[in-house]
Amino acid sequence: MMTYFAISFILFLSAFIHGVVGFAFALTALPLLALVFSVKEAVPLMALYSLIVNIVMLVLMKEKNIFKVPFIFLLSILFGVVIGIHGFILASEIFLRLLLFVVILLFLIWEFYRIKVEHGNYSKYTNVINVELFKHPFSLIFGFIAGLLGGLLNTPGPPLIICLSFFKLNKNLFKATLQLILAFTAFSAVLNHFIVGNITSKTLKLFILNMPIVLIGLFLGQKLYNRLTTKFYYYLVNIMLLISGVLLLIKNH
To answer: Which pLDDT value is given to residue 89?
Structure first.
């Protein structure tokens, strides 16, 4: 009974954080869930929840200017997911975590420096998506890395955050675009988990039983998000990026 309560609380907390910042559901939940049951069971469960969580967020945000993400960018993510889930690992898991942490740390140093130089001027952020930016080799590389980490660690958020941060989108467009891409990544992961048999009847039972608490956490997080300014939102995203990098390093196998 205590184990079930612990799982429900972890999922609620993770959903609430995701509702606020637009990512970090699996990054928050996995290290904690690993304390109460197998990571091999937790990863497919997170993939299922991630799909629903990101679709629900898209519906709640009602942002109409996000469906411009080009197919080539989504293809780079799909390619990474397939490689990750089927075990074509280019490096060890701990190396990938360490590499991602270093990338996040370097980005945060640059981001805080940029904020200091611009004196927090967020007037340059746009309401329009530049499709060509998604086709840039830089974006495609980060899309592949996101897919790879989505398949291996179920943690595609940080690479996508870093990529989208260079697009200078306002907070609503940034978050909604992120939800769309994360939903596609989660769908690809769920499909591949089903194909290789990682999703069991126990996984589906936990998924259905805890769905209401996840949706409540998500809804409350979105309510808090609506009160945030663009400036504070980006500060919060950067803080969660740093925390997510640390969680990647300490997360149990």
So the answer is: 43
